[in-house]
Design a protein that fits this description.
It is a single chain. With 348 residues, the chain is an alpha/beta fold. The protein folds into two domains: 201 residues, Rossmann fold (3-Layer(aba) Sandwich), CATH 3.40.50; 110 residues, UDP-galactose 4-epimerase, domain 1 (Alpha-Beta Complex). It has ten helices and 16 strands. It has a seven-stranded parallel β-sheet, sandwiched between helices. It has a three-stranded mixed β-sheet with strand order 12-9-15. Helix 1 packs across helix 7. The longest helix is centred in the N-terminal third of the chain and has 21 residues. The protein is globular and about 60 Å long. The structure holds ligand A2R. The site of ligand A2R has 24 residues, from helix 1 and helix 4. Ligand A2R binds next to helix 1 and helix 4.
């Protein structure tokens, strides 16, 4: 059986590739000439990389001709919510058009490959306290260009299933973290700053954005196990949350990581550039549907994930100074961080 992973060089793709190899699958992955391959160097000799820019239809056709997959996990994306404010059209182009290209090419081939759409908990956007924990039936009220692009991918998967009977399973994973996560993401960013403070590369001050949001975190290694179960056995046309059912405030994440730090008394400083024009206040999911469908639930405690992320950054920093993260500078107007308690009136 052959699995094609788009975005194999990314954070999640590298873990899914490891898992698939362990399961004895043949693994192909799309990558671009400029893709960084550090996440897959250790397995590069065991996978087949195929050059493809997914925004280009002819490139996608070649990808499918060469890979001829039985399963496709479409992970490639502009994956960073904050960057989507700076580049909404690019976010749409990458996330929506790439998936159209893949599904149209599969349709033209009358392929029966099982296809996994990677949506996101960000699709839920504004959520009211009485809707928690969020089930798949919750209304989608996206609050960022990224979230809208993921809604489009999600509903496109539904439409291709309904219109053409293609075996497409849709997912909405809540936040997932682990080593190799890009340092523009908050957990990784905090861990990196701590590792740099420990190494004496920066003053003992952590820069932070909005600490009030609450997020439902799962380890990436659990998430890819869920993705594979859904690829194998998820109900075509259906959508599944992947989440832990527990919410951490970003403040809690910060406190846990500073508690693990080898340096005491690290100060915290707000950085206006790290706030977003509107931020989802709380994302807390209900994973009972995926549990009933394929028996998936997270196994790794998030404390372990955070320790592993910190260790990862300690190792990276020990190899010398790491280039500064290219955090998108969001216009420093006062952030509209809605709280679920004082949420705007419900739309019909
Ligand atoms: O940008 P590259 O060349 O390093 O490759 C990234 C790939 N990618 C593309 N591949 C082909 N054609 C494109 N036009 C294109 N644009 C991006 O997607 C990289 O291999 C991957 C994204 O990796 P990360 O940013 O690390 O995302 P992560 O965390 O692995 O997210 C996986 C999925 C995404 O759909 C997210 O929206 C979702 O999970 O949360």
């Amino acid at each position: 059986m052959r699995l094609l992973i788009t975005g194999i060089t990314g954070f999640v793709g590298s873990y899914l590739a490891e898992l698939a190899l362990e399961q004895g699958l043949e693994v192909c992955g799309s990558c671009r000439w400029r893709s960084k391959t550090e996440n897959i160097e250790h397995i590069r000799h065991r996978i087949r990389l195929i050059d493809c820019d997914l925004r280009d239809q002819s490139s996608v056709q070649n990808l499918l001709d060469v890979a001829s997959p039985d399963y496709i996990a479409h992970l490639a994306a502009q994956s960073f919510v904050a960057a989507s404010w700076q580049a909404p059209a690019e976010t749409f182009n990458t996330n929506v058009i790439s998936q159209v290209n893949l599904l149209e090419a599969l349709r033209a081939r009358r392929s029966r490959a099982r296809f996994l759409v990677i949506g996101s908990s960000e699709e839920y956007g504004t959520v009211y306290e009485d809707e928690l924990p969020i089930r798949e039936t919750n209304p989608l009220r996206p609050l960022s260009p990224y979230a809208v692009s993921k809604v489009a991918q999600d509903l496109m998967g539904y439409q291709y299933f309904k219109s053409y009977g293609m075996p497409i399973v849709r997912t909405r994973a809540f936040n997932h973290e682990g080593p190799r996560r890009g340092d523009v993401f908050v957990t990784s960013n905090f861990a990196r700053q701590i590792a740099e403070i420990e190494a004496g590369h920066r003053e003992p001050v952590i820069e932070v954005g909005n600490l009030k949001s609450r997020r439902d975190y799962t380890d990436v290694r659990d998430v890819v196990r869920g993705y594979w179960l859904l690829l194998e056995r998820g109900e075509p046309g259906d959508v599944y949350n992947l989440c832990s059912g527990k919410a951490w405030r970003i403040q809690d994440v910060l406190e846990f990581l500073t508690g693990e730090a080898r340096v005491r008394g690290i100060a915290v400083r707000e950085d206006a550039a790290r706030f977003r024009p509107s931020d989802v206040p709380v994302l807390l999911g209900d994973a009972s549907k995926i549990w009933k469908a394929v028996g998936w639930q997270p196994e790794l405690p998030f404390e372990q994930t955070l320790r592993d992320v910190l260790e990862y950054w300690r190792r990276r920093v020990a190899h010398g100074p790491v280039a500064a993260p290219n955090l998108p500078m969001v216009e420093a107007r006062s952030p509209r961080t809605e709280s679920a308690a004082s949420a705007p009136p419900k739309l019909p």
